[in-house]
Design brief:
By secondary structure, this protein is an alpha+beta fold. It has two domains: 4-84 and 155-223 and 322-382, FAD/NAD(P)-binding domain; 94-148 and 225-321, 2-Layer Sandwich (D-Amino Acid Oxidase, Chain A, domain 2), CATH 3.30.9.10. Helix content is 30%, strand content 30%. It has nine helices and 21 strands. It has helices at residues 12-21, 41-44, 62-83, 101-117, 127-133, 155-168, 288-301, 347-363, 369-378, and strands at residues 4-8, 27-31, 48-49, 89-90, 94-98, 123-126, 143-147, 151-153, 172-175, 180-186, 189-194, 199-202, 204-207, 224-235, 247-254, 257-265, 270-274, 278-279, 309-321, 327-330, 337-341. Strands 5, 6, 7, 14, 15, 16, 17, 18 and 19 form a nine-stranded mixed beta sheet that branches. Strands 9-2-1-13-21-20 form a six-stranded mixed beta sheet.
Length: 384
């Protein structure tokens, strides 16, 4: 009959795992409740590759995140070779800018020393050099820090390439509109129960269903939770190529509150801005007031955006965890069920290395010291 792997969840993590592990099994069945792959959090993501600036990548997962960033050029090249789809990659770095003295002080006294201590490449820019590096930024910008090691891409293009790689692989079967109700490990393998009564059987199962993983592998109360995020897209009139030279992050004072403005340019003249954080919410309908706040913050960072045309907004559900770290590793005593979820806002950043790590777990290969260290941090059993 041959060996079989069942992967639940066809976002960037699930698709990357299916592709990476396909040579270990005679058959891989990839299940997703939506009409196609990559239509949940991966579709909604902005696309920053942020192993340095993202809070959740610092600390014990720093080396894991940095290793994932180093994998990206080869990983994207492999996807292009296997799909015929190029994924444009912005590799000029992230600019973290300060619009007011308090934020300038926070970046200079708190963030920069951390980054330097951790060995990151850091370039500190004053107002003049910031304006030269990114001319469209507001003249009110006081300073910036450039992190050359951070990149950005368009997740929907990435998912198109992954989707085609899976389609061309004869060992992989993608089953859409397959809502999973239960994952049950046993001595002989794993049974995955579908809504309507169908059953998919495999030797191993990877649960990569994002925020919905909590329904299949329940953790202690509060261990997993949804975090709704909203973003918007604009087109620069007459634009071609990247409208900005970098992706840009700034904390902005807006209506007596501080909001995060993250601006990511696309290769064809579009710009995406985000993002909101609404813990505990499952709804995916964008809200007008949230879009207006995103645009208001953007105008403070990039005044020229007042003339850009809004083409759409959307919301997606990130998978959050109580300590902010992903859930990756064996979820049962026999190693039949492996979790690969809980990546919050860094699923795109960590996709290549998560897929490689899950492949190592499934194959039984000896783990590197770095993999073992990361698994200790991400072990799902800390919440089971």
């Amino acid at each position: 009959m041959g060996s079989a792997l069942v992967v639940v969840g066809a976002g960037v993590i699930g698709c990357a795992v299916a592709a990476a592990a396909s040579d270990l099994f005679d058959k891989v069945v990839l299940l997703d409740a939506r009409p196609d792959t990559g239509l949940a959090a991966s579709w909604a993501a902005i696309g920053g590759i942020t192993p340095q600036s993202d809070d959740f990548c610092r600390g014990p997962l720093r080396q894991f995140a940095e290793a994932s960033r180093r994998m990206y050029p080869q990983w994207l090249a492999g996807l292009e070779a296997g799909s015929g789809i190029a994924v444009p990659f912005l590799d000029s770095g992230l600019l973290q800018v300060a619009l007011d003295p308090s934020e300038q002080q926070r970046v200079k006294e708190q963030l920069v020393p951390q980054w330097v201590e951790q060995g990151f490449r850091v370039e500190q820019l004053d107002a003049r050099t910031t304006a030269h590096a990114e001319p469209l930024l507001s003249p009110a910008v006081l300073s910036a820090v450039r992190l050359p090691g951070e990149g950005a891409l368009e997740p929907r293009v990435l998912m198109s390439a992954l989707r085609e790689v899976l389609r061309r692989n004869p060992r992989i079967e993608v089953v859409a509109r397959a809502r999973v109700q239960a994952v049950t490990p046993g001595a002989g393998g794993v049974e995955v129960l579908l809504e309507g009564g169908g059953v998919v059987r495999g030797d191993r199962c990877v649960v990569a269903a994002g925020a919905w993983s909590s329904e299949l592998v329940p953790t202690r109360p509060g261990g997993q939770f949804p975090v709704r995020g909203q973003a918007a897209e604009l087109v620069v009139p007459g634009g071609g190529g990247y409208p900005l030279r970098h992706h840009v992050y700034c904390k902005v004072a807006l209506d007596d509150t501080t909001v995060s403005s993250y601006v990511v340019p696309r290769h064809d003249g579009r710009v995406v801005v985000g993002v909101t954080y609404d813990q505990g919410r499952w709804d995916e309908e964008p809200e007008d007031h949230a879009t207006e706040r995103l645009l208001a913050a953007l105008r403070l960072v990039v005044p020229a955006s007042r003339d850009w045309r809004l083409t759409g907004s959307w919301a997606g559900i990130r998978p959050g965890t109580a300590d902010g770290y992903p859930l990756v590793g064996n979820a049962d005593a026999d190693g039949r069920v492996v979790m690969a979820t809980g990546h919050f806002g860094v699923g795109i950043t960590l996709a290549p290395i998560t897929a490689a790590l899950v492949r190592s777990i499934l194959s039984g290969a000896a783990l590197t010291a770095g993999q073992a260290d990361a698994l200790r941090v991400m072990d799902p059993r800390r919440f089971l």
